Amino acid sequence: MLDTRRLRLLRELARRGTIAAVAEALAYTPSAVSQQLSALEREAGVPLLERTGRSVTLTPAALRLVDHADTILAVLDQAAAELAAARTELTGTLRIGAFPTAVRALLTPALVALSRDHPRLELFVSELDPADAADALRADALDIALLQEYDYVPAEPENGLATEPFLEETVHLAALGRDSLPAHRNSSWIAGTPGTLCHRMTMSSCAAVGFTPRVRHHADDFGTVLALVAAGQGVAFVPDLGAVDVPAEVVLTPMPIRRRTHLAYRRGTGGHPVIAAARRALHAAVGSPARVREAHPGAAQPVEQRSVATP
Asked: pTM for this structure?
């Protein structure tokens, strides 16, 4: 019998390339990953890894097993969902991952609704960058999460996950005056931490109009970003949900750039009663444009959103 936890490790190794990368992503030690993969080899009865010094490569048998892993794991998750559907009351845990502005504006009302309607459900929230959310879902560290993509930074296909549209926002240029994006070719810029989607969006959006931004400050909190803009420290991109308590000095100019957020969960779990309840609560939280505008009075334009019906 193949251990599903070890199958997840093999799948991650195929995706990440090294045992060290798998260990770092899933909070294991490299030796623990090696031991679990060796145990999987014994369960499979055939070699799965070819070791050359400190590096490993997957054998043809391992690659075939990886091809089946997503289907195997999704079927098991679907079976668990069907069993859970037979219960009369939602119990257990729900682990949600979301980016900071969504936690404040959208996740809070969803949590209130879930707590009211399902008092025996234990809720856990993790604030994280959307770039890390898919890995956390595949590692079974989260049950549902918010993934993002921007114009100029399209999302990569996420093996093993199901996604659905959730929210679409306009991205604004925050500056001390109303200018076009090319007018800030020589300006100082404020961008997210390198490696985050916000940073990649800033670099790619400026590159699309012919220049590389001179990033002077890195900040991931949009309140901090707006304060730096107000202090004359540079210009920045700010999406609708980040436009909270905008300083009087700052002008937000809508750009032809969109930020799209998707709900994501492991394939096969969408029908699980707990996941379905989370999907309904989250879509309800984003379903009213007035509610979002009231929570974000500084936004220059209303948030636009698209909701998908959930079972």
From this structure: 0.70
Mean pLDDT for 257-274 is 91
| DSSP assignment of 3-62 | -HHHHHHHHHHHHH-SHHHHHHHHT--HHHHHHHHHHHHHHHTS--EEEETTEEEE-HHH
CB count in 10 Å sphere of residue 120: 8
Can you give the three-state secondary structure of 67-88, one letter per residue?
Answer: HHHHHHHHHHHHHHHHHHHCCC
Asked if 310 and 144 touch (Cβ cutoff 8 Å), the reply is no
Decide if pLDDT at 296 tops 60. Answer: no
pLDDT tens-digit series, residues 139-154: 888 999 999 999 988 8
Distance of CA 215 to the CA centre of its chain: 24
Residues in Cβ contact with 145 at an 8 Å cutoff, skipping those fewer than 6 apart: 96, 97, 98, 128, 130, 133, 134, 136, 137, 263, 264, 265
More confident residue, 218 or 2: 218
3-state secondary structure 84-137: HHCCCCCCEEEEEEECHHHHHHHHHHHHHHHHHHCCCEEEEEEECCHHHHHHHH
